[in-house]
Amino acid sequence: MDLLELKNLIGKRENEHLEFKRAKDDYSIMGNGGKTRRSVLGYCVALGNEHGGRLILGVKNEMPREITGTSAIQNPEDVKSKIYQNLGIKIEIEEIFDERNNRVIIINIPSRPIGQVLKFYGIPLMRIGEELTEMNDETLKQVLNESKPDWSAGICENATIEDLSSDAILVARENYKKKNPRIIDEIDKWDDEMFLNKAKILIKGKITNTAIILLGKPESSSIISPAVAQITWVLKSEDNQEKDYEHFTCPILLAVDGIYKRIRNLKYRYMQDGSLFPEEIDMYDPYVIREALHNCIAHQDYSLYGRIQVIENESGFLVFTNKGSFLPGSIEAVIQTDSPQEYYKNKFLVDAMVNLNMIDTIGSGIKKMFNLQKERYFPMPSYNFDDAKVTVKIFGKVLDLNYAKALAQNRYLSLNEIMLLDQVQKRKRISKDNMNLLKQKNLVEGRYPNIHISSKIADKTGETVQYLKNKGLDDECCKELIIRCLQMKPGLSRQDINNLLLSKLPEILSARQKRNKITNLLYALSKKEQRIKNVGNNRCPRWEANN
User: Which residues of the chain are under the pLDDT cut of 70?
Assistant: First the structure.
């Protein structure tokens, strides 16, 4: 756009595709963690949801408009990167100067993808008059109904049940029993076709693309060609040289175990620091590996004809890659909303994987990965959405000892604060507001943007250990401890759970307060999150984990 085109645009009325802002000195980019909708991120969401538009900074909003100039957005490439990381869309930013050298920023915002909504910290925004408001249910429904046909539900016309692996069907049946323990006897009476229909893997006895992906014989993978049902594991040296590899194809249900066995989950030895760290631990939590891999399978865009990749680097990290876009838009949105997605690229495949106990739909899988990394004092998973693919990097070691100390000594830190601290240890720039937030807690030092995690965190180890005793485990830690114990030994009584947790709750609480806290935890897990269930009665409860 040149200056003449800009002046012509200034003469037009604002609408759902055009927004002017004076923004003389500065303008919020990311919306202050969700507090400021009138920000670059907020307008990218709202205008993108209206099929695209322009946000123009440095022009007076009131008629008659005039160019006033702006000093906002000094680093356009950084802003473009942040918007892409959060929304998965590529904006273009133009810089124009008028005759008086007044600077104008023009942000060109593309339309949302078909059948998807963009979200501002979990909220789908739309523009009504001058306001950015939450999209109403009717509009949201119309958007989601735009979606393309679900490829994973497609029928393979010439395929039969003979094209499926009997071993994979047997494993699928056992997984389905774990998901549905109350009807095990009934499941045993079903023949394979009835079982696969009930598990929503077949459609009225017809073989689907999902059935081939999860349960197909290796030679059956050609049935869904040119789509590719393949996962490649690659081992690389610390200097990124390929040392070994193996391709895994159908049935993907069995391939997951094969890939898991190839990953060398070695012991990681912590550098000891008083009594803050355990001596050693597995590099990777099994749940994290399987969750990352299952997410790749469920959300792969099979129309792009690419394979899923799992790269294991000997320097201590795993990289999982699948083709396609990240539909929630941003990891921050997933962590903050902690709820199921409204739309899935492969809904039929996702439903089948839920029925086979491979994934869940309560939206907690990714957040659980972050919490498990937190408990190890390891870096948070790193997500990257670029070039029509999603990449997640899982670290199996400590990167910055001061980060690990900060997590060990500050159990009260929120996941959002830990994610910010993680950005600092990875030498990624955070906003000044977020830096000030961390500085208030004495977690970072230095002058912006050259900040680092404070080395003063662990000066008083003895005092910290006593603080941890007073603080006790936080609610999320206690919940995960309950779940793990129920998975190992179902049917625990209330007394068993009391024995498990009482010594781990804050020492400043009375015995009665501790028991009330355990009651609240069990209520949250059973009623709100539905992760456990009472298989006894109200008087003598017996608790089991929901598979």
Answer: 14, 16, 147, 271-278, 327-330, 333, 337-343, 361-363, 386-387, 456-472, 507-508
Angle at 245 between CA 240 and CA 247, to 5 degrees: 135
Tell me the β-bridge partners of 18: 15, 54
CATH architecture of 472-545: Orthogonal Bundle (1.10)
Give the angle 245-266-394 at the CA atoms, nearest 5°: 70
What is the residue extent of each domain of the chain? 3-144, 151-224, 231-453, 472-545
pLDDT value, residue 334: 74
Tokens at residue 437, please? 């937030």
Torsions phi, psi for 355 (to 5 deg): -65, -25
CA distance 214 to 172: 9
Nearest CA among 227, 228, 250 for reference residue 164: 250
| Distance between CA atoms of residues 116 and 300, nearest Å | 16
Other Cβ atoms closer than 10 A to 522: 18
Per-residue pLDDT reduced to its tens digit, 424-467? 999 898 999 999 999 998 999 888 888 989 876 544 434 444 44
The C-alpha torsion from 29 through 30 and 35 to 36, rounded to 10°, is 30
The pLDDT of residue 454 is: 86
**CA distances (Å), origin 174, targets 77, 167, 350, 358, 535:** 51, 11, 18, 12, 21
- Residue 441: HSE in the Cβ half-sphere, 13 Å Cα cutoff: 18
Task: Say whether domain 3-144 belongs to CATH 3.40.1390.30.
Answer: no
pLDDT digits (tens, 9 = 90+) for 366-401: 889 999 999 999 999 999 876 678 999 999 999 998
Specify the 3-state DSSP secondary structure of 262. Answer: helix
Backbone φ and ψ for 138, nearest 5 degrees, come out as -65, -45
